[in-house]
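seq:
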Amino acid sequence: MEIDERARRFHALHAPGELLLLPNAWDAVSAAIFAGAGFPAVATTSSGVANALGYPDGERAPRDEVVAAVRRIAAALDVPVSADLESGFGANPAEVGETVRRIAAAGAVGINLEDVVHPEPRLYDLPEAVERVRAARRAAQAEGVALFLNARTDVYLLGIGAPETRLDETLHRARAFAEAGADGMFVPGVADAATIGALAAGIGLPLNVISSPALPPRAELRKLGVRRVSLGPRAASATMGYLRALARDLREAEAFVPDLRGAMTYDELNDLFAGR
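struct:
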């Protein structure tokens, strides 16, 4: 599928009335499994990609390796891919723009761009955060990709300010990011219906939240105006937890009989990449 068609399809998945459940992969095989299960798009998880590359999260994986990982994922799929770029892997807006240019060239048609200074973490002052969003939009336009730019603010996730000020601060930032060229707004750390509804009504962009046990069910989220729910690092964490348990069983068991219930077969895994 051509990159323009992938971008068009990804934008359409955020249309009014839609609720996109977006799984987050960490390598080509996890992405292919999600796509094979019928998800219409796949995103990356920054922590999962970093860990798979041998680094901790927080922009400590080299940018070149992250771009290469996204390229492999995008090349393995026929569905749109959105890349979690953390804060853009750049000390200034120009470097953020270069990251976005390269990630678009790698085949991604969406990005997440957060307003967090790594590794502290703290929020960028709003004028600087806005310039980073602007630089990302300009870079995508220069690359000729109709990138879905999902701006993210961590006001709630980091507990910035007094609780009663967080809604207004989030809305203020979201509106500024929208003016700078954002297509959507990701607000992790919120789960109660009242806050989610106020955000969806006040932001003016498709609202993205992250899955959690406290999150309302899909039907309610749709009514509240949410357009996208990200799985986040949960699939990677669950998979690695299973692998850790399997490793302990293999080390301690008298017989080599690990629990392989639900395991994919050799042929099933190879078939994910048939024709490549």
